[in-house]
Amino acid sequence: MLDSLIHKLTPNYTNLKHWTVFGILSAVSFFVRFPFFFRDYVDRDESTFILMAQSWVDGNLPYTELWDLKPPIAFLFFAVVIYLFGKSFLAIRFAGVIIVALTAFFTYRITENLSSKKVAFWAGIICVALQSMFGSIQGVMSEHICMVFLVPAVYIIILKKQWYWLGFAGVLMGMAIMVKLNMAYTVLFVGVYLIYHFVKEKKYLGGSVAIAAYGLGVIAIVVLTWLPYYLNGIQELWWKSVVIAPLDYAEASQNSIFKLVPPFVLIGAFLFFAWKQKYLDFKKTPIQLLLITLLGVLYAFFKGGRINSHYLIQLYPILLVFIVIVSSGFFTRLKLKLPKVLLLLLLLIPAESYLEYYRIVRHKIERGSFHNGEGITVPQYLLENEIDTKNILFLEYHIGYWLLNEKPPTKAATHPSNICKPEMFAAYNNPRNTAMEELQYIMEYLRPKTLVTRKDRLIFDEKQTEPNNYIDAYIESHYELLNTIDDAKIYRLLE
Q1: Are 10 and 146 in a shared domain?
Q2: Does residue 489 share a domain with residue 447?
Q3: Shared-domain flag, residues 127 and 61
Q4: HEC profile of the chain
Q5: What pLDDT digit, counting tens, does each position of 468-487 carry?
Q6: Are 33 and 350 in contact (CB under 8 A)?
Q7: Do both 177 and 45 map to the same domain?
Q8: Which domain holds residue 420?
Q9: Is 335 left (phi over 0), alpha (psi -120 to 50) or beta?
């Protein structure tokens, strides 16, 4: 019975068509991510991207009305979805399913050209899993959007030799940069490698044309994102927001370099093992290109000084190609086979998804809706009870602005944590210079009539002692608790 079940679940790798593979990857991506379609948010950054996108749909260029620390194409993805489908969590999350599947598909295509279809298939499946589980990545993150451009670009550079294909790869690389600026290091590393490759091959003329096409493709996208600001006479806002602010933020938020040592050492040891045991042939151009791409991503982490869990989405697709090829070679050399029971245990990996399916069904039974989370229930409560939302401050669950058709009180409050990031104030010419000045301006001058916080949690990062002490004392003195909705506390200003 076990053998029969495994046989039915195992595809015929040899006869797999590309569209079939993409269909399978899309189905797996949908199954794993679907129960999270109904949450208000999975990661707070996604809420901020949605607010920025809505402002763009309303006719405001990014950074002019609201502000966040990402290049424009990160917001453009959400803006296109909102423009086409309206305010729909389902549409945004379904778009996330597609881009995860696309990234996994091109991971499959790269691996297929370096190994077998079987190895490539599992590289694609694992890529979907790593982009969808283990941490707050079931929503749509900027890293997801970035990789749907970067991975196809790498695939094109590996397989296509014509200059116009290199130009298209450059366009995709430019898109990746304008989603995550730290990808500029990877794009530069790849460009330098291409120069080295063409010189080594003595393809001076053809190589020069290809390199020029690649570079112009990158530059064209960057210029296109800058052009609307230039035409409106606010190009300085683009420069400060897209280039200067991320550099200032990286410098201000760097952690100890020693925290980066473990992942760097593990990856280095793995690559050394793969080279020493001849599982990877680093003399081959595709392997070299993948290695350079991987080093570019790692260098970006090094320059940023930190690796949050969702940053790893930038690492998984390329690193996975190496891992599955080495694992396949290791098992083949030692004539090992995975136990059949272990194959069935793979079905237990999406445990987070199974739990979320259970939660949304329970929520539907208990409350009559699959949609859940304080970012949804708080706006519903405010509207049902006709509570003033014209002057509201969300210090948590800020996706509520979107559902109420309201705006954050200041640019710094677009993402609540940005209130305490004064290193970025200069990017949008904030007249306040410190976190306390910004917070006091919001609370004492704008005086939000309604305030939303999270129960039993500090409002700002624990390192922000003065802002936390101030806001706690101010709320206690000037606000009354109106209601508690799940984990959200709603306050009303005392007149």
Answers
A1: yes
A2: yes
A3: yes
A4: CHHHHHHHHCCCHHHCCHHHHHHHHHHHHHHHHHHHHHECCCCHHHHHHHHHHHHHHCCCCCCCCCCCCCCHHHHHHHHHHHHHHCCCHHHHHHHHHHHHHHHHHHHHHHHHCCCCHHHHHHHHHHHHHHCCCCCCCCCCCHHHHHHHHHHHHHHHHHHCCCHHHHHHHHHHHHHHHCCCCCHHHHHHHHHHHHHHHHHHCCCHHHHHHHHHHHHHHHHHHHHHHHHHHHHCCCHHHHHHHHHHHHHHHHHHCCCCHHHHHHHHHHHHHHHHHHHHCCCCCCCCHHHHHHHHHHHHHHHHHHHHCCCCHHHHHHCHHHHHHHHHHHHHHHHHHCCCCCCHHHHHHHHHCCHHHHHHHHHHHHHHHHHCCCCECHHHHHHHHHHHCCCCCCCEEECCCCCHHHHHCCCCCCHHHCCHHHHHCHHHHHHHCCCCCCHHHHHHHHHHHHCCCEEEEECCCCCCCCCCHHHHHHHHHHHHHHEEEEEEECCEEEEEECC
A5: 999 999 999 999 999 999 99
A6: no
A7: yes
A8: 374-493
A9: left
pLDDT of 391 strictly over 60? yes
Nearest of 171, 128, 137, 176 to residue 30 by alpha carbon: 128
This prediction has a pTM of: 0.93
Residue 400 in contact with residue 379, Cβ under 8 Å?
yes
How far does Cα 430 stand from its chain's mean position?
Answer: 27
Distance between CA atoms of 441 and 431, rounded to whole angstroms? 10
| 8 A C-beta contact, residue 68 and residue 427 | no
Give a yes or no: residue 116 inside a domain. yes
The CA distance from 69 to 140, in Å, is 16
Task: Give the list of residues 6+ apart from residue 172 with CB closer than 8 angstroms, or none.
Answer: 149, 150, 152, 153, 156, 217
pLDDT in tens, 59-76: 999 999 999 999 999 999
What's the total number of domains in the chain? 2
The radius of gyration of the chain from alpha carbons, rounded to an integer in Å, stands at 24
Long-range contacts of 325-332 (CB under 8 A, 24+ apart): 325/111, 325/114, 325/115, 325/119, 325/279, 325/280, 326/270, 326/273, 326/274, 326/279, 326/280, 328/115, 328/116, 328/119, 329/277, 329/279, 330/277, 330/279
- 389, 442: one domain: yes
Residue closest to 181 by CA, chosen among 102, 263, 240:
240
Cα–chain center distance at 51: 16
Give the pLDDT confidence of 110-168 residue by residue, as tens digits. Answer: 999 999 899 999 999 999 999 998 877 888 999 999 999 999 999 999 998 889 999 99
